[in-house]
Amino acid sequence: MILHEAIRLYTPVTMLVRETCKDVKLQGLHIPANTPLILAVIANHHDTKIWGEDADKFNPLRFCEPRKHSSSFFPWGLGPRTCVGQKLALVEIKLVLAVIIRQFSFVDELGNVVACKSPELQCS
Fold first, then answer.
1. Is the sign of the CA dihedral 67, 68, 73, 79 positive or negative?
2. Does the N terminus or the C terminus of the chain have fewer Cβ atoms within 10 A?
3. What angle do CA 20, 22, 13 make, to 5 degrees?
4. pLDDT tens for residues 30-72?
C-alpha cells in the first residue's frame, strides 16, 4: 500500500503515447486510424474525481478499498505494453527500503527495542 501510494504521487512515467490502428468511436467521439493518443498518467493519478479531495496528499489507506475504476492506477502502463522492468523496479525499491531501515532502531509501545541498528553496511 505504501509503495503504491508513493508511486501514485511520484509516477515513474508521466505520460503514455499510443496510436489507434483503426477508426474508433469513443463515447460518441470519432477517432480516425493512426491518431496518436496521449494518456497523462500523472494527471490521472492526481485527479480528485478518482482519488478524492486529498489526491495530492500521501494516504496509503486509499489502496485498502477497491478502486472506483480498474484503470485508475497505471504507473507502469496498461495491457500488453506494460513496462517490462516493473517487477525489477519494485524489487529494487524494496531492497533500497530494507537497506535504509537497517540503519534505524525501532521501539515498541513498552519501550522494548524491536530492531537494532545494523553494523556498517558494505555495499559493493
1. positive
2. C
3. 10
4. 999 999 999 899 999 999 999 989 999 999 999 888 877 778 8
